[in-house]
Design a protein that fits this description.
By secondary structure, the protein is an alpha+beta fold. Helices cover 23% and strands 35% of the residues. The protein is globular and about 40 Å long.
């Protein structure tokens, strides 16, 4: 069995940003540009995801599944626009959920994901 590797560890919050387990990587919730527009927050969340994936030599094209959380589920078309721009036609499966965030006045979107790779660092 291969070793489970944890990266981007946050001791204060007791979580890892990305975990590599065999051929799969599990990416913790990604958020950025809190307080910005929905498009800025979605783009920022994918920036953060991309940075975490780079820690293990992967890109957004390795993402196979995403859970997308929205304050307003009707913002899905904005996310689809950003996905078309960022994923180069290599679209993951996804689930979109409307939720109430702890900071409902500023946080509009967050995403977590699973990526696949046969690359092992």
């Amino acid at each position: 069995m291969q070793e489970i590797r944890r990266y981007d560890i946050n001791e204060n919050w007791a979580h890892s940003g990305i975990i590599q387990a065999g051929d799969y990587c599990f990416i913790n919730y990604c958020v950025r540009n809190i307080g910005g527009t929905i498009e800025e927050q979605i783009d920022g969340a994918f920036d953060e995801m991309e940075e975490r994936l780079a820690l293990v030599g992967l890109t957004l094209e390795n993402v196979v599944q995403m859970n997308c959380l929205f304050q307003n589920i009707w913002d899905i078309p904005v996310m689809e626009k950003v996905i078309k721009k960022r994923f180069n036609g290599k679209y993951p499966v996804r689930k979109s959920i409307q939720t109430v965030f702890a900071d409902p006045d500023h946080l509009l979107f967050q995403v977590d994901a699973i990526a696949y790779s046969t690359i092992h660092s």
